[in-house]
Write a structure and sequence with these properties.
Elements: H1 2-20, E1 26-28, E2 34-40, E3 43-49, H2 63-74, H3 88-97, E4 100-102, H4 107-114, H5 117-130, H6 135-147, H7 150-160, H8 163-170, H9 181-197
Helix pairs in contact: 1-2, 2-3, 5-6, 5-8, 6-7
């Protein structure tokens, strides 16, 4: 259901923009997952475990890449034989060539993953401004941040505040060091396309 809804959201817009000759780029979550194969009722089944932090040397599986590649194949921009198998960096380059910029996890976790001390303090400050609870709630949030439990941090934001409300407040504190590279690349890409289209 999730995969279908993402494709339904992006695909018609890409088709319309392409048909009208309007420059576009697409930004979406990477949604890294751990893949596991188990035998269930004598049949091998594949399971995807999300909300994990990738460990060095571990296989790289990204739902975002899979969905964007499927979209490009469905639209006839690439063929299945052109897609590099099991090579994250080559798949990423292919997607960028077609204007698709994919994160690693989800935006908030991608930001936390690159945050230095200043960035972490910004997250703490914003949470303190919007949280409904008292000091204990803030302390739990701060502890998760300091421990690198980024998925727990995101859950606290979502459960206690909502990601939308948090984002609205976060914008006034945002610094360039918290902007993930794939978003910077997408912005440069669309600027280049619009500039070229109007030269």
């Amino acid at each position: 259901m999730y995969a279908m809804s993402i494709l339904l959201i992006f695909k018609p817009y890409v088709q319309i923009l392409q048909a009208l000759g309007i420059p576009w780029c697409l930004i979406t979550d990477g949604d890294f997952y751990e893949a596991e194969t188990k035998t269930v009722d004598s049949k091998e089944k594949k399971f995807k475990h999300y909300h994990r932090i990738h460990q060095e040397g571990e296989e790289e599986n990204f739902r975002g890449h899979e969905l964007m590649i499927k979209m490009l194949i469905d639209l006839g921009y690439v063929s299945e034989s052109e897609v590099p198998e099991d090579d994250f960096s080559e798949q990423e380059e292919l997607l960028k060539r077609y204007g698709c910029f994919v994160g690693y996890y989800t935006l908030e976790v991608d930001m936390l993953d690159i945050a230095d001390e200043t960035g972490i303090e910004i997250f703490k400050t914003v949470y303190s401004e919007v949280r409904p609870g008292g000091r204990k709630q803030q302390k739990n949030f701060d502890n998760d941040l300091d421990s690198g439990n980024f998925w727990d941090v995101l859950k606290k934001i979502d459960d206690n505040v909502s990601k939308g409300r948090f984002a609205q407040r976060f914008v006034s504190h945002l610094i360039i060091d918290l902007v993930p590279e794939y978003i910077k690349e997408a912005i440069h890409d669309i600027i280049d396309k619009v500039t070229s289209a109007h030269e």
